[in-house]
Design goal:
This protein is mostly helical. The protein is 45% helix and 4% strand. The protein has a two-stranded antiparallel sheet. α1 runs parallel beside α5 and α5 packs across α6. The longest helix is centred in the middle third of the chain and has 24 residues.
Length: 186
């Protein structure tokens, strides 16, 4: 039976055009060992909910540890592990979340939580750009674009970068999000 979890935080800084508010997360489509980590990582900030974390992992690696990611990066697949982060980003955002005494991109808890922290830091950066009038658009889409191409690209283009690769990545993750929401047959 799927675990249905209502997520969403009060005091949201979401602005016009943002559609990530509150949702019920359907854990049935997430590997059981990863469910608690996806829920925790997707509860760090308002923009990046559990369904977003799950969709990103699905888009990046298809839930396969050591799979190469479709995003451009100069890291070996083993370094990218489950979530598809570069080794440098993982090192910056990871901690021993699973409490096993080591920080490793091969530990699902460490990797998924690092993704959540990184995404939420990107979401904060995007929000600052929007508040300064340096970018406009949906906060989630801009956060995913920043994950793929960097916050500087979002600032340079004052929104979603025109790159086909970036737009394809954002579109793919957006397409996968409903798979992880309650009631989805996908």
């Amino acid at each position: 039976m799927p675990l249905l979890v209502m997520v969403g935080l009060s005091g949201s800084k979401l602005t016009d055009g943002d559609d990530q508010r509150q949702q019920a997360f359907d854990s049935a489509k997430v590997p059981p060992a990863h469910v608690k980590w996806v829920i925790r990582a997707g509860s760090i900030c308002d923009v990046v909910l559990p369904s977003v974390i799950a969709a990103q992992i699905d888009a990046e690696t298809g839930w396969q540890e050591g799979s190469p990611s479709p995003t451009p990066a100069n890291t070996a697949p083993a370094e990218r592990a489950l979530v598809g982060m570069s080794a440098a980003d993982f090192e910056e955002w990871a901690s021993d979340d699973d409490g096993n005494g080591q920080v490793s991109p091969l530990d699902a808890g460490d990797a998924i939580m690092a993704l959540g922290r990184f995404d939420c830091a990107l979401a904060e950066g995007v929000q600052r750009l929007k508040e300064k009038g340096l970018a406009s658009g949906d906060s989630l889409e801009l956060t995913l674009a920043a994950y793929h191409s960097g916050t500087k690209a979002v600032e340079q283009y004052r929104g979603l970068p025109p790159s086909g690769e970036t737009r394809d990545y954002v579109g793919e993750v957006r397409k996968l999000i409903p798979r992880y929401e309650t009631g989805s047959a996908r």
